[in-house]
Amino acid sequence: MAETIPLWSLTDDSLVEISEDGSLVVVTRWGEHEFPQAEPLVVESLRRMALGPVSLANVTSSWEPVEREPDLEGELSWTAEGADALRQVLKELGGSVVRSLGLADGRGPLLSVIPVVLAPVFAPVAIPAARPIRLSRFSSLRSDADGMGLESPSARYRVVLSQPWAVHVAATLATAKSVGEIVTTTGIDRGVVGAIVSYLVAAGVVQAAEENGRFAEDDDPELGVWSPDELSFHTTSRTWRPGGPADLAGLGNPPVVKAPTGEGPSYSLFRPDLAERAETDPTLTALLENDHSCPEFTESVLSAEQIGEFLFRGARIRSIGPAHLPNGPAHSASQRPYFSVACLYELELYLSVNRCSGLDRGIYHYDPFDHRLSLVNDDVADLDEMLDIAMIGGGNHRRPSALITVTARMPRMASVLGGGAYATTLAHVGALQQTLYLVARAMGLAAHAVPVDAGDRVDRALKLDWPAEVGVGECVLDFPG
């Protein structure tokens, strides 16, 4: 019979500093923890845990055994003072303590349970042999640097499955099974299967059925409103977890302005007198109190001057210079009429022009620095397809005068924000949409966001270099209906 061994370690981003006077400092992603006059047992335990998974029973072998400590799974034997001190330290460092499960063969962990919140609770218990268990419907399994990563946005831990036995057990749980059925399916020792399952359930990535045979998350009305993709995106975008962009340094410092693409003609745009507009524009209150519903698209024709003024007031570059996040490296930045974190301005604007005097029908890219439009695609079928998805998204029966597609150059964001890049980009899209809406209303036009089912049609029509540049939003430009 194979025997499993509980192992303990600290997360890779934790740093243990031990001074000559015995004081201990542990630096983690959650903050700095000081333990003055730390017990020798605590110092030695954390020193070894910083190096990798260890059995705390081995760490304590040189201490005088007094009593076993059930709060630490019965594996520790030492003086009561040392046990209590270590228990308190591990509790305080909970968000950086990794719990692993190994075998007595010395080949490393079967799996590791890694916290993703500040103060998680990990309390593995034996699961009855006949009780149904299954993966949470929010769980996902993907390749990880150290094995297979298993995580769920509703869990307080992510799991790395390092050995085949752990992977096999997890893979069988796509549908509900009992420990006995897993043993029969995989041929793995019952004790090993039971231990793996208890760790997966305690981590929150696997669900155990209630006494009535149902799974709690299936009857949870608050979880029921979330799709797995949306909840995963929300969770991972609000906490910068491992598994994000792998080499941010390799991105360098992407330019403020996108380099011209294509060989089509370019057109300089009209620049309005903003001092003159300030005297005649409606007030902000008047603009905000207008109806925000998407208007019926008209058959009216925009002018090149109107498009020029609209883009100048809503999206041009006013200046370029250095900027940085607090305590972060400097990067090139720009100033524009709408908000962007650290003045990164990763968004690009493309215009699908349908009806405009002074501009031919086609798809154009806007250069916010030189205030120019450059033709990127004059294919009639691609243009009509873009306008059709705007018509459908806006709930109309005719095509708008123009469609603005907003894209994002993701390296521009990821080079500074890492795993928080995409969520921040969506916030920027909202800021830009509101700015364009207000500018259009001040000009007597109508600009309104429309939801579209883009698929790969936008990438193809705009000739984007996916996934370095991706479509993130659309806005129609027309006249009030």
Short overview:
By secondary structure, the chain is α+β, with helices and mostly antiparallel strands.
Largest sheet: 7 strands, antiparallel
The largest beta-sheet arranges its strands as 14-21-20-18-22-24-23
Task: Classify the beta-strand content into a percent band.
Answer: 15-25%
Continuous helix count: 15
| Radius of gyration from the alpha-carbon trace, in angstroms | 29 Å
Uncertain residue ranges: 62-78
Strand count: 24
How does the helix and strand content classify structurally? alpha+beta
> What is the averaged pLDDT score?
88
User: Which word captures the global form?
Assistant: elongated
Share of helix among residues?
25-40%
Compute the separation of the termini in Å. Answer: 77 Å
Can you put this structure into words, describing what you see?
- This is SagB family peptide dehydrogenase.
- The protein is α+β, with helices and mostly antiparallel strands.
- The protein has helices at 40-49, 56-59, 80-92, 164-171, 179-186, 190-203, 221-224, 228-238, 274-280, 284-288, 304-315, 380-393, 410-417, 421-442, 457-462; strands at 4-10, 15-18, 24-28, 31-35, 67-68, 77-78, 97-103, 109-115, 133-135, 140-144, 147-151, 157-161, 206-208, 266-268, 302-303, 319-324, 330-335, 347-353, 356-357, 362-367, 372-377, 402-409, 446-449, 469-478.
- The strands form 7 sheets. A 7-stranded antiparallel sheet has the order 14-21-20-18-22-24-23, sandwiched between helices. The chain has a 6-stranded antiparallel sheet with strand order 1-7-8-12-11-10.
- Strand 20 (362-367) and strand 21 form a beta hairpin.
- Helix 1 (40-49) packs across helix 3 (80-92), helix 4 packs across helix 6 and helix 13 crosses helix 14 (421-442).
- It is elongated.
